[in-house]
Amino acid sequence: MTPLTSIDIHLFDEFTQKLQRHRLYEAITTKETLRCFMEHHVFCVWDYMSLLKSLQRILNPIKSPWTPSPQPHLRRLINELVLEEESGETHEPNAFASHFEFYIAAMEQIGADTAPCLELVHSIAETGASSINHRPIDGIQGIPDAALEFMRDTLRVVERNQPHEIAAAFAVGRENITSCMFRSLLSQTKTSIPEASIFHAYLSRHIEVDEGTHADHSMLILNSLCDGDPVRINEAKAAAYGAISSRLKLWDSILEQVGNQPAVPHLEPLQTS
Prior knowledge:
This protein has 273 residues and is mainly alpha-helical. The protein has a single domain, classed as Heme oxygenase-like (Heme Oxygenase, Chain A, Up-down Bundle). The chain has 11 helices and 2 strands. Strands 1-2 form a two-stranded antiparallel ribbon. The model is unreliable at 262-273 (pLDDT under 50).
């Protein structure tokens, strides 16, 4: 077999199709089940930023006095990604926020519990924790076990500090699967109500930017960091498969939780003019 000289996103089609067709989306039929989903998924939104900022630190280190990083084309790509993800457009005109803050606003709109995730973020900010062993993710009450395990998987990749592995988890495990998952969420769930309008705006905005440039840019970063080296390519593939597997496990766990939610009235369809 001829060794791969680059990573093609289609290598992972079997797994991305499993995510696209997952039964979780059609199971989100009530406000209670949507809250349950978001109270898990918010931790994916948070630790995504750790992957992104780790890549930025590698490709465009922040330091003073300043010196130019060695790969200006990668510097440009990562800075474009950070601009949108850390300070992108929101549901409000002329308003900007990180996608994490955008998601928190969506949770607050439907009455989902944001306290565990906000407590985690505030605790990290106060302690200045810099590694998974010192991050207080195990000490926060209310984090679902499945979300906790997902975060551990992500942060292990970050802490190994291998650029091509971080890029693989980011490009394959996030940027190139998000649009298919979120399209399925929008089309299959019965959550199109005015009370969930921010959530729908969040999903639509993510699909727009990922299908616009983010997916392609993230793959360019990944393959540049692999640089055709077969060892790096194999390690990056393993990291990518690990990230997708972690997501599938989380989705399975949320589906199990959603199935145990008490019966409540279905959400009313969104009325559009």
